[in-house]
């Protein structure tokens, strides 16, 4: 019974730590998950945490600086949307938000929500980065 409790706790903490490191990279996600898992569940927790952290770390790759610069240089569109939901990295944008593609890098798109520029993954509309 204790093993199951520790296993669930290790996996939960690993996923949480991996999510926190998701904007960095796979390496950071795996390392953070492994450390958290090792603290909670020992060697088995480290293995589970490392795998879970790596998966979460690869889910959202940070955009290259060229993409960030492009989005920052675009004029503020007249049709920017204000939504009640908080814009959160890893969560999709509401369907009411217009997403604009980035011509030089179609892997990324951007939108202006609540007067903030956000970089998103076009197919899933998941927020990758919020620019201030």
Automatic annotation (TrEMBL):
Range of residues in the leader sequence: 1-22
Keyword tags: Signal
UniProt KW Signal keyword: yes
Record keyword Signal present: yes
Protein name: DUF1236 domain-containing protein
Native source organism of the sequence: Rhizobium leucaenae
Taxonomic path: Bacteria, Pseudomonadati, Pseudomonadota, Alphaproteobacteria, Hyphomicrobiales
